[in-house]
Hints:
Strand order of the largest sheet: 1-2
Number of helices: 6
Order of helices and strands: HHHHEEHH
Oligomer: single chain
Number of domains: 1
Amino acid sequence: MRIKSKWNLKDRERTLAETGGAMAFILWRIAQQGVLNLENEGFQTTTNSQRLDVMGEFLGFLVHVVDRMTADRLEQDERQEFITSLAKHLANTMQENRTDAEGRGEYREPLIGLLNERAADYSEFSFSDNEPGYAFRRCFGDCVRSVMGEKDNQWITDQVMDIEIPQALKPLNKAVRDLFTEEPA
């Protein structure tokens, strides 16, 4: 998966809110690709709403991983500003997509709630060298399994742990490196 993760105008300093917006776009693309990969492997989704539920689980995982990856780069208040901006951008994108799939409604708050719930769940697990530990991966795989279709449901956790997470981490690591590296003007 190719993503654009470098700024066009390198000599302009970016705010954490702008960086959060750029990261949100990247995470959305990674989550979309994850759902597409699962479907291409024969795992069943039946509606756009269900696909968005799966994407929500991917986003919960990815936001927490980004938070862990940037924890040493940012002060606590900067980290909060960045993650808040990231979550708001993702919630707005989810609102647009759920409205298209399901009609009018409030869809921002459920995603924010899911992100907060997954942050609490995942905070218990190990994370070292920009890699989630085994229990972290398994929990994510089980979360995806819970919102996927019934067909071949027992294999979804393994697919997520062994294939989807490594594929998601490649562009994610690049995005964090590119968006948070200060290049000389």
